[in-house]
Amino acid sequence: MSGRIPQYFIEELVARADIVELIGSRLPLKKHGKEFKACCPFHGEKTPSFTVVPDKGFYHCFGCGAHGTALGFLMEHDHLGFVEAVEDLAARVGLDVPHEDQGAVRAAAPSDSLFRTLEKAAGLYAQELIGSDRGKRYFKSRGLTSDTAVTFGLGYAPDSWDFVLRSLGASEADRMNLLQVGLTIEREKRPGVNAGPGYYDRFRDRVMFPIRDARGRTIGFGGRVLDKGEPKYLNSPETELFHKGRELYGLYEARQASRTLTRIMVVEGYMDVVRLHQAGITYAVATLGTATTPEHLQRVFRICQEVIFCFDGDRAGKAAAWRALENSLAFMRDGRQIRFLFLPDGQDPDSLVGSEGKEAFENRLQNALPLSGYLISHLRDQVDMTNADGRARFRDLALPLLQKIPESSFRDILSAEINQSARIDTGLVGAGARRGTGSASKEAATYSRGPSAAGRGSVVRQAIRTLVHYPQIADTAPSSEGLEGIERPGIPLLIELLNDLQENPCANTAGLLERWRGRPDFDPLFKLASSEYPVDAAGAARELNDALAQLFPERGDQRLDELLRKQAREGLSNSERAELQGFLTRPQPLIETAPERAGHRT
Asked: For residue 89, how many C-alpha atoms fall within 13 Å in the half-sphere facing its CB?
């Protein structure tokens, strides 16, 4: 479904969601006054510092700083993308997710029927496996148990051109669904031969591996041929629901096995993943017949900070590993770890874990090459390091790879290792890698506005804090016109908050924070929301007006100074002279009231 999820719906969603019920279904929350506490699921601790604030709709950990709304919790704890989290939360509260399409709002497309088609197909294949000696013999020969088959939903597609078509294609709408999700293929039409559309099953005489998304819904299939035939593995085509470059086989099962994954191992095949999980190595996943993509890495690093690529030691495995390394460089940050494990010739994870067991296999992981070691050894193999020309070529090959890595201590250390290997004066490679990135880094490091810039205890910070804790009081405040031109840190954010909340009222803190998601001020606003503020809504309204009352005269003072300087420098126009006369003869009101707005908007 294309189209943006409207902001009003997101705010309504977090306002209606019971964040205590949501988080309490995953953590043992204990009531503590008006709040709830638990040990934080995002870092190890023995004394609870994870706090849920139900009336404001967010959580915050005072130990590690993790924070978010109900949506944020689903994204961080359940490792869902934003859209997936919205859909999950909407289903919990019984709302349909709308989408904006060219300025108009319409209901979400009925992709549910496609999901239902895939789930029915998965059930059919699983049931067929139970009665198929052929399918069961194959899985038994690979050492799989019936429990493993159930966990992964394994199945069998019989040697029939219309098994799925006959079972699930009763109507034309059903047949179109089968075609849309890639379970059937439309026959070629030949003039004078086919009067109407004809279809046949894509998967025939294959053991079936359902591919699940982050919510456990079947989105596609992988099918392995049982006898000789091509292709050995056949995947579902790209569809509305299934995108090979984004999905990882076994990721849902890995998350189900452990909510606190500390590492993920990426292997090459379905059977590798299934056999490793059965052996107790439940952090294994596989790409779906494609190289590791940036989208894969983004998903993985949202879950954990360590990735191990485990490939066969043959030429194809090494080629896949190098492509994975190249795509990984842009994601290297301090604290992240990427390693590479190459298996003995003729072995793959499936066969190796079957012959030597979990403990021996995991012992091999201790010898996996770190990314830096693999990069250097791979490049050294490409040149003759015994002479200056070869070492110079080594440096030239390394430089563009270094430039892909964000500035960090990791890049500095890798640069030094490359220099040492090439016997180059320390700093040359690093300097080359830094060229062209300085301005971007300075820009990224500049944070020109926000509550943190306003200074602890400042009047601007006080006003912003009251709006964050009680966004509904914005209607009781005057307009922001009197703030324009005040030269104080945080004023642009305060003006934007006031204008936004007065034009589009917001029910609670969680809704306001979701409005700022993805923007530079999101984290500073969340820190203010997480700070203690023992004031009710009426008291907060008084504090906001008091703060603005202190700020508005500043604009008058600044304007008076501007007029006096201009008069001395070049003289004033008639209107400016009248304005100056007004400043000199009349006291300025402390605050502009807005009774018509404060009394009539809710």
From this structure: 29
Instruction: Specify whether the CB–CB gap between 429 and 418 falls below 8 A.
Output: yes
For residue 461, give the nearest of 433, 493, 425, 486 by alpha carbon.
493
pLDDT 10s digits, 95-127? 778 876 544 444 444 577 899 999 999 999 999
364: left (phi over 0), alpha (psi -120 to 50) or beta: alpha
**CA distances in angstroms from 274 to 60, 281, 306, listed in the order given:** 37, 9, 21
Q: Return the CATH number of the domain spanning residue range 110-242.
A: 3.90.980.10
Task: Tell me the H-state helices in 341-437.
Answer: 349-365, 371-380, 388-403, 409-422, 428-434
Cβ distance 477 to 544 under 8 Å? yes
CATH fold, domain 243-381, is Dna Topoisomerase Vi A Subunit; Chain: A, domain 2 (3.40.1360)
Give, to the nearest 10 degrees, the angle between helix 537-569 and helix 574-585: 130
State mean pLDDT over 28-52. 89
- The residue among 413, 127, 368, 84 whose CA lies nearest residue 251 is 84
Q: Are 155 and 124 in contact (CB under 8 A)?
A: yes
Domain 7-107 = CATH 3.90.1300.10: no
Residue 273: helix, strand or coil by DSSP? helix
The three-point CA angle 7-12-35 to 5° equals: 120
The pair of three-digit structure tokens given for residue 512, joined into one six-digit string: 């306001």
**172 half-sphere exposure, CB direction, 13 A CA radius:** 2
* Helical ranges in 404-490 per DSSP H: 409-422, 428-434, 438-445, 451-454, 459-469
Sequence spans of domains, the chain: 7-107, 110-242, 243-381, 390-404+413-436, 451-600
Rounded distance between C-alpha atoms, residue 465 and residue 46, angstroms:
31
Question: Distances in Å between the alpha carbon of 103 and those of 6, 173, 514?
Answer: 10, 29, 21
Residues linked to residue 37 through DSSP beta bridges, in sequence order: 30, 51
- In three-state secondary structure terms, 274 is helix
Paired strand residues for 208: 155, 223
For residue 555, what pLDDT band results from cuts at 50, 70 and 90?
A: low
Do residues 135 and 165 touch, judged by C-beta distance below 8 A?
A: no
**Which is nearest to 300 in space by CA: 283, 317, 312?**
283
Q: Are 433 and 399 in contact (CB under 8 A)?
A: yes
Q: At what angle do helices 409-422 and 371-380 cross, to 10 degrees?
A: 30
Which SS3 state, helix, strand or coil, does residue 408 take?
A: coil
Q: Indicate the class that CATH gives domain 451-600.
A: mainly alpha
The answer to whether 261 and 303 have CB atoms below 8 angstroms apart is yes
Each residue of 129-168: pLDDT tens digit? 999 999 999 999 999 999 999 999 999 999 999 999 999 9
Which residue, 112, 86, 115, is CA-closest to 99?
Answer: 86
